[in-house]
Amino acid sequence: MQLMSEKGAAGGGLRERKKRATRAALAEAAIRLAAEHGADKVTVEAISAAAGVSVRTFFNYFDTREDAFVVIDADAGARMRRAVLDAPAGLSPLEALREAMAAELAEAEQQHELWRLHAEVLHASPHLLARGVGAHMAAEADLADAIATRLRGASGDGERPADPGLYPRLLAAVATAAVRTSVDHWSAHQQEAAFLDVFHEVFTLLAAGLPAPGA
Fold first, then answer.
1. Could you give the CA distance from residue 87 to residue 54 in angstroms, rounded to a whole number?
2. What is the pLDDT of residues 7-37, one digit of tens each?
3. Phi, psi at residue 28, to the nearest 5°?
4. pTM confidence score
5. 188 Cβ partners below 8 Å, 6+ apart?
6. How many CB atoms lie within 10 A of CB 68?
7. Phi, psi values for residue 168, rounded to 5°
């Protein structure tokens, strides 16, 4: 899952929910059009028309046409960061991160086809893939900051640490790799297990220190 900064912060009010719904509609329209025609052939006008909004509205949510292809849910990273910070004190950093990610992935699982198309669009366009990697790294850095803040016992409302430290960076990197592995494995074995079961199995292996099978 990836994060790119969006114009406007996430919130829970009706106006913010409408804004998120509009942005989601634009992102979905962009991805579906790109999957069908190729990203380079999809215009802002086509994306806006498919989402039922004006071109002016498009640029309220995206700075460039390319941004519409890169991230499906721009608020996911902020929600996970908040969930990590607000998790019960009794949870370990790994458990807090697991629960935050599971809450997001439970919804994403319902949009598996869209996430599959999104991956295809990025891999078909090297410049979009590079932007996607950058967004992925930004999301990972945000999670590392949240872990570092949690370890300090802070609320996360103040200034973020200049360097979260080795452990938070490693945990965030391992957790995001675990999500990618879960998605890849489940995509190839959908008939054998539910996605969240695969996800939790992966985190159980991490928590156990990755013992060899049968050990």
1. 40
2. 334 445 888 889 989 999 999 999 999 999 9
3. -65, -45
4. 0.78
5. none
6. 26
7. -60, -40
Cα–Cα distance between 97 and 143 in angstroms, integer? 8
Closest CA to 146 of 160, 167, 163: 160
**Residue recorded with tokens 């640490």:** 161
Lowest mean pLDDT among 57-61, 125-129, 154-158, 178-182: 154-158
SS3 content of the chain, % helix, strand, coil (to 5): 70, 0, 30
Q: Which amino acid is at 42?
A: V
* Confidence bin at 119 (pLDDT 50/70/90): confident
